[in-house]
Design goal:
heterotrimer; A mainly alpha (341); B alpha/beta (507); C mainly alpha (187); B: 507 residues; alpha/beta; Rossmann fold; 2 domains; 12 helices; 38% helix; C: Alpha-Beta Plaits; two-stranded antiparallel sheet; 4 strands
């Protein structure tokens, strides 16, 4: 007979935070593989760097905050933050930018708010927005589309660019992303149909990038099936993004790109399935999740079309995070048997 | 006629482990030497002992009387001698001792003179309720609410549907299943009696889909007067509010009772007990208990109330050691007992022996919302957790903490391994304690105010008495002064007169 | 034209947001504002009327806090919980209890040893809540339901027959323990 009284229930389904996080990492694989296929192994180096930094900083912070280190390192949340952060960066990003972004994400956005479960803002996005605002030039050199550059950069190119300071080979290898190209060309009064015939664009969006996005979507659907993430958020993000882009596209298809272009370019799909669904910072009521997802989709579109940055996903997520307490407060489901309001 | 079934939110599909014990015929547990009978086995006011130490009692004799309306009497489970009336360990999460009557069995198991009530159909429902109360019948499904209170609701309100609950939704437990299989006629006859007692328009017996044998037994016995319904297997479909929702689509109002939706619900075991009480005058002194889990021979026992849990486990060829966790009830809502000497009481439906796997460390809530998806009453468990943790009683109540049925679904799916139900229980008991404290404080401040007022009044009275006296004294002085003066002048006058007379005489 | 629209729309959005945020700020709750501060403070005090705060009872102490004459941390029976509640109410920092008396974690009541009691009425006069009954030269006894455990009756007793006993935890009044997660314990 055991001495210590234990409250019911005496069974558990065996789920754990680490299993959830591990599944999220696995689900990133299809997109990651596509990334490597089109643009070489540079992203893997970036991921390893970010994850390594994330774990190291997490360890330091746990030590400093006198929290059980093993328990919290095992939960895998730092790994997921590192991976998502790395996937938002260009694979050419210098290592110290990665480090500073991760440091901001883990120290300020996560641990200063109380660590796992207490952060109101998505750490990966907070870190990304931090480096995006601080080092805009560095953040805008992306690998050129395979259609444009003929070859994808070799691993050695990546290593030399990531670990050197201002490598000259960078200019030869880099190009604009589909979203920034679209934005700058539209700014020059070109029409969408004219811009789209450039070789850097593929079937729906940027050549190569569109398949990476679809890879992320496949992984995300896997997460949905495993019930790691809730269906409301991805659905709402995608529907709202589709809806608003469709409205403007029908209104003037020369100035506003097609819904499919918006869906498959930039971080839309990665965000819909992996970033917006971060449970800690998302709304937790079923209806609230729909609202939260819609907010992200709409805000991201607004920032893309009228904002100063080519992609607005990260900003949209942070802004929606800020709205979560209000959304949760007003979307509490009616309790069974509740009378009146 | 088939009833249209509805659904309730949330819930869980999980392995049921019922086959461990549902094929096995139940056996009578041998008469133990000593029986410990807690005075409170029901919700409400504890019974009051009406025997004293040393008294000889017979099986079925009343040994404690009901005290107040929400209370039932208690009966001796066997014949023997009362050897103690005092505090013993009882099945309660506090692990505190509570008043019990202890009977030493004389081994004869001699029956007290009990009288049946003939022809229940001709008896007034009110009278039937009294019979049921006198036999100590309470909700045998686990809640332990005195049955006559629920029946009385039926007399005072129009009852649309009487539901007899045979939906044993918790894994492992098969005592109702076995009871129906073995005593289906009792259940059906008891159902008709309860129906008469509450004068219900419709009557439904509900069993779970995975109880085909019990369903078949009942089907043989019922006529058109009773509907027999199979409910899909999903935890917690057997919860009172959930079953009502499944069968009728109605929601029991928050903080209300089923009768507020025109429904009375009783457990199948209660129905069988009613049958025994009415036809034979037999009180509740034994019950079906499933003993299952790690035990060698999982089966149902017919146990006399007051038998210790240890005895029951032993009867299934098992000795619980420190690697076991003994649970009274099912794995989802059952109560962990650390002392194997606690007795089986009227509400003990199952003794589950589990391996004692330590709980994984609790992690912070990551707000994943899995708990929201499984909550059968649409609560926001992650918010309630937060409020309970921070002792925010006001916010807990605003988020309907008292609508939580403690089914355990949220804890079951929590990836952070948070003992959510314990947080809610803490929160609820904390709110109750705060209310008591506030009542006590109000009481004290009222008494303090009353005393101050009284002291002031005393003081005032004292003052006024003094004042009166002073004035009275002063008055007296004046009067006497006047009197004296009058006296003096009188005397003078008299003297003068006398002198005058004397002078006249002399003249 | 566009600017004009912004001038109207932005304040409207701001007002809407402010209105949505209302329930998050208890200070805007009008029902609470209406009640007098003293009354609210008094409601937070334990009402033992023990005078350990150096005032004659809970109400006078509440008045003293409200008028700034007394600090918030002088109530030993209320302890940390009361101090926390008052600090939240007044928007002040949490403080440690400051008193010559110790904080009582368990509720106590007094008990009169009826064998020794000589019936001197001194304790009856000392009790702030009239929880002792008896008359001169008659044995006294405590109504334990009404006793607040203030200890004011103990000192006046000439024969030392009054003792403080902890109130037994009954099953009905038992409170579940709050789980203490490992991650909150500093290593």
């Amino acid at each position: 007979m055991t001495e210590q009284f234990i409250s019911s229930p005496h069974k558990h389904d065996g789920s754990s935070v680490s299993v959830m996080m591990f599944r999220v990492c696995l689900a990133l694989l299809p997109g990651l593989l596509a990334y490597v296929w089109f643009f070489g192994a540079g992203i893997l180096i970036q991921c390893m760097l970010a994850v390594g930094f994330a774990i190291a900083i997490e360890y330091l912070m746990l030590k400093m905050r006198k929290r059980p280190v093993e328990l919290f390192l095992k939960d895998g949340s730092a790994i997921v933050t590192g991976l998502l952060f790395a996937l938002c960066l260009s694979p050419f990003t210098n290592w110290w930018i990665t480090l500073s972004g991760i440091a901001f994400a883990i120290i300020i956005a996560k641990h200063l708010y109380g660590g796992l479960g207490y952060n109101p803002f998505n750490p990966a996005m907070a870190g990304y927005v931090f480096v995006l605002l601080c080092f805009p030039a560095q953040m805008n050199s992306w690998p050129a589309s395979p259609e444009v550059a003929n070859t994808s950069p070799a691993l050695s190119d990546y290593i030399s660019i990531i670990f050197s300071n201002g490598d000259s080979s960078l200019d030869a290898l880099s190009g604009a992303t589909a979203l920034s190209q679209m934005k700058s060309q539209l700014g020059m009064m070109n029409m969408v149909s004219e811009i789209r015939i450039e070789p850097m664009f593929g079937h729906f969006a940027g050549a190569g990038w569109e398949w990476i996005s679809i890879g992320f979507m496949l992984g995300g659907i896997g997460l949905l099936v495993l019930r790691v993430i809730k269906w409301q958020i991805p659905l709402a993000v995608l529907i709202s993004m589709l809806g608003i882009s469709m409205i403007f596209n029908t209104y003037d298809s020369d100035v506003y790109a097609s819904p499919l272009f918006h869906l498959c370019s930039g971080g839309t799909l990665l965000c819909a399935f992996f970033i917006a669904t971060d449970p800690v910072t998302a709304s937790t009521t079923p209806f609230g999740r729909l609202l939260y997802g819609c907010l992200i989709g709409v805000l991201a579109y607004i920032i893309r079309c009228w904002g100063a940055y080519p992609d607005g996903i990260a900003f949209a997520v942070l802004l929606a995070n800020a709205c979560v307490p209000v959304i949760d407060h007003y979307t509490r489901p009616k309790v069974v048997g509740e009378v009146g309001s | 006629m088939t009833r249209e079934l509805h659904s309730f939110p949330g819930g869980l599909q999980m392995p049921t482990f019922k086959t461990l014990s549902d094929q096995e015929m139940s056996i009578l547990h041998p008469l133990p030497e000593r029986l410990i009978l807690p005075l409170q086995q029901h919700i409400g006011i504890p019974s009051q002992p009406c025997v004293s130490i040393g008294d000889k009692v017979l099986k079925g004799q009343t040994i404690a009387r009901a005290f107040g309306y929400v209370s039932v009497p208690m009966h001796a489970s066997t014949s023997g001698k009362i050897i103690d009336i005092g505090d013993y360990p009882v099945p309660h999460p506090s692990e505190l001792k509570a008043p019990c009557i202890v009977i030493e069995s004389d081994g004869e198991d001699k029956l007290f003179d009990i009288r049946p009530t003939n022809e229940y159909a001709s008896v007034d429902p009110k009278e039937l309720q009294d019979v049921i109360r006198e036999c100590g019948i309470i909700g045998l499904g686990g809640a332990g609410f005195p049955a006559h209170v629920k029946l009385n609701e039926g007399v005072e309100n129009a009852v649309d549907t009487l539901i007899i609950n045979g939906v044993e939704c918790e894994p492992y437990i098969t005592c109702d299943d076995r009871l129906i299989q073995e005593k289906a006629s009792y259940v059906v006859a008891g159902t008709r009696m309860i129906r008469h007692a509450v004068q219900a328009k419709h009557c439904v017996i509900a069993v779970e889909e995975d109880m085909p044998a019990a369903y078949a037994e009942l089907e043989k016995l019922i006529d058109d007067d009773i509907e027999l319904v199979k409910v899909p297997t999903r935890y917690p479909a057997g919860g009172e509010k959930q079953l009502i929702q499944v069968l009728t689509g109605k929601e029991v109002p928050s903080g209300g009772l089923p009768i507020h939706a025109g429904i009375v619900m009783h457990n199948v075991a209660t129905a069988a007990a009613v049958f025994r009480a009415v036809t034979r005058g037999e009180p509740v002194i034994s019950r079906y208990v499933t003993v299952t889990g790690l035990v060698e021979k999982s089966r149902n026992l017919q146990v006399l109330l007051g038998t210790t849990v240890k005895d029951c486990i032993k009867a299934c060829n098992f000795e619980a050691d420190e690697n076991c966790r003994v649970i009274l009830g099912g794995p989802m809502m059952g109560m962990h007992v650390t002392n194997p000497d606690v007795p089986v009481i009227k509400t003990t439906n199952c003794i589950l022996v589990q391996e004692n796997i330590p709980r994984l460390p609790e992690m912070p809530c990551i707000r994943c919302g899995n708990c929201v998806d499984v909550c059968p009453v649409n609560l926001l468990p992650q918010q309630l957790y937060w409020f309970a943790k921070t002792d925010n009683t006001e916010a807990s109540q605003r988020h309907h903490i008292f609508d939580c049925i403690e089914c355990g679904c949220c804890s079951y799916v929590c990836p952070s391994n948070i003992p959510l139900v314990q947080y809610y229980r803490y929160g609820k008991s904390q709110i109750a304690a705060e209310e008591r404290r506030r009542d006590g404080a109000d009481h004290a401040s009222a008494r303090f105010a009353a005393r101050n007022e009284r002291l002031q009044k005393d003081e005032r009275e004292k003052q006024s008495v003094k004042e009166e006296k002073r004035i009275a004294n002063q008055k007296e002085d004046k009067q006497s002064y006047i009197n004296a003066a009058v006296e003096r002048s009188k005397a003078k006058r008299a003297l003068n007169k006398k002198t005058l007379e004397d002078t006249n005489k002399d003249d | 034209m566009e600017q004009g629209a912004f001038i109207i729309v932005i304040p409207m959005i701001a007002c809407l947001l402010a209105w949505l945020m209302m329930p998050f700020d208890f200070r805007t709750n009008t029902t609470l504002r209406k009640r007098a501060l003293v009354e609210r403070l008094n409601a937070l005090l334990p009402q033992t009327q023990c005078g350990k705060c150096s005032y004659d009872g809970c109400q006078p102490y509440a008045e003293a806090i409200a008028s700034g004459k007394a600090d918030i941390n002088n109530c030993p029976p209320g302890g940390d919980e009361t101090i926390r509640n008052i600090s939240t109410l007044l928007g002040r920092d949490m403080k440690k209890l400051e008193s010559e008396h110790e904080q009582q974690l368990q509720q106590h009541v007094v008990l009169i040893d009826e064998q020794i009691c000589i019936g001197c009425v001194k304790c009856i006069n000392a009790c702030p809540v009239d929880a002792i009954i008896g008359a001169a030269k008659q044995m006294h006894t405590v109504i334990s339901k009404a006793c607040t455990g203030c200890e004011l009756c103990i000192a006046p007793c000439p024969v030392d027959c009054i003792s403080l006993v902890p109130v037994n935890v009954e099953i009905k009044k038992w409170v579940w323990t709050k789980p203490q997660p490992e991650f909150e314990v500093s290593t």
